Amino acid sequence: GDYEIKGRILQELGRLDEAEPNFLLSQEIIQQSNLSAEFKANVKTIALYHSARINIERNKLPEARSKTEELGRQAESKKNRFQTWLYHELLGLIAMKEKNYDEALGEYRRANLQEPYNLYRMSIAYQAKGDLTQAIKFCERVVNHNTLNSMSYSFVRHKARALLEQMRKQ
């Protein structure tokens, strides 16, 4: 778990070449452990998520799409809601890279809306579409989110506050 957390922090800092080996090491350690086969299978699926995210950030969209589709197949076969949310999150990120904001918004709506980062992403998509009212609404939801003990929220809240301030000046 520590390597996954380190990978997430490095990824958030944009240090993808350092983040990627941490995700791989986390998965390798778990696969060599005595943990259950079911847990190990879930970790492999989550590894697809991390790898797809890095590919998206590197603009390697065909690779990201391939990993995303595999994650979607695995999530569907397991009927795993959390992984299905991650699948839609990834599809939204890909659509954003392709500047298809309506598609991105549709995918984010099918992702985990308890995840403040997805609300922030929706704000960015609305802003890109020119809908400042909706962009501000979603950004306010992030800033005022009632999240306890969330690494993701610690990453996104300051970004949302800065974006909200910028949008309110427009």
Tell me the layout of helices and strands.
Elements (H helix, E strand, L loop, with lengths): L1 H11 L3 H16 L5 H21 L3 H18 L2 H17 L3 H9 L6 H14 L2 H12 L7 H19 L1
Helix pairs in contact: 1-2, 2-3, 3-4, 3-5, 4-5, 5-6, 6-7, 7-8, 8-9
Description of the molecule:
With 170 residues, the protein is mostly helical. The chain has helices at 2-12, 16-31, 37-57, 61-78, 81-97, 101-109, 116-129, 132-143, 151-169. The chain is globular and about 55 Å long. It starts with a helix and ends with a helix. 36% of the residues are buried.
Would you summarize the structure shown here?
This protein has 170 residues and is mainly alpha-helical. The protein has helices at residues 2-12, 16-31, 37-57, 61-78, 81-97, 101-109, 116-129, 132-143, 151-169.
Number of strands: 0
Between the first and last Cα atoms, what is the distance in angstroms?
42 Å
Query: Approximately how much helix is present in the residues?
Result: over 70%
Counted by DSSP, the helix tally is: 9
Assign an overall shape. Answer: globular
The radius of gyration computed from the alpha-carbon positions, rounded to a whole number of angstroms, is 16 Å
Helix and strand sequence: HHHHHHHHH
Average pLDDT metric: 95
Structural class: mainly alpha
Largest sheet: none
**SS strand fraction:** under 5%
Low-confidence spans: pLDDT under 50, at least 5 residues? none
